[in-house]
């Protein structure tokens, strides 16, 4: 599942598995009132996801020695607002929530994404993939990775989550070309200018029904 091999050494992380059939709001109701207010108009399902993911974020901050009980609020485009000197990322999907944080002294920015290990719905790939990425997907499928297209999507999402805190600018799917490698790593080549870095490093894994992708800039 999620483990240290997906991250640089300075990253602290936490994840929880949940039963998609059971609606558990306990983590949500234990959040700071200001955090609860961020999704006060959402469905109970959304509140449960949010509460579990924020619980993971606070546990990761605790492991990093940066947890002070302060709420993790939202910035531009929903970006989590971490304590000073900390970068981080939050993700969730059905049955899985996770967060990761790191000292900015060692990691400038960090992004994580989790997706079900299933192929994308018909018609979606053409909207996210660049021409040069299709050959990689064919190669991965030949290695038995039937969900290679969703792996690409996951890597692009993690890339965006790493890019945005540094630039506060949108990054479209077509604005990063992903070099997915069979050894569980990838490189995201950024095709926009100006850019703070020419590429972003990443790692991926597929385990227990989920794809996990992490991206980071040292």
Q: What are the low-pLDDT stretches, counting only 5+ consecutive residues below 50?
A: none
Structure summary, number of beta strands: 8
Number of helices: 6
Which class of the largest domain in CATH terms?
Alpha Beta
Cα-to-Cα separation, first versus last residue = 24 Å
Strand content: 25-35%
Order of helices and strands: EHHHEEEHHHEEEE
Strand order of the largest sheet: 4-8-7-6-5
Mean pLDDT across every amino acid position:
96
Total of domains: 2
Protein name: 4'-phosphopantetheinyl transferase superfamily protein
InterPro entries: 4-PPantetheinyl_Trfase_dom, 4-PPantetheinyl_Trfase_dom_sf, 4PPT_N, Enbac_synth_compD-like
Binding site for CoA: 46, 54, 91-92, 113, 157, 161, 171
Binding site for Mg(2+): 113, 115
Structural features:
218 residues, alpha+beta, Ribosomal Protein L22, Chain A, 2 domains, 5-stranded antiparallel sheet, 3-stranded antiparallel sheet, 6 helices
Write the layout of secondary structure elements.
Layout: E1 12-17, H1 26-29, H2 33-37, H3 44-64, E2 86-93, E3 96-103, E4 109-116, H4 125-128, H5 134-142, H6 148-167, E5 176-180, E6 185-190, E7 199-207, E8 210-217
Antiparallel strand pairs: 1-3, 2-3, 4-8, 5-6, 6-7, 7-8
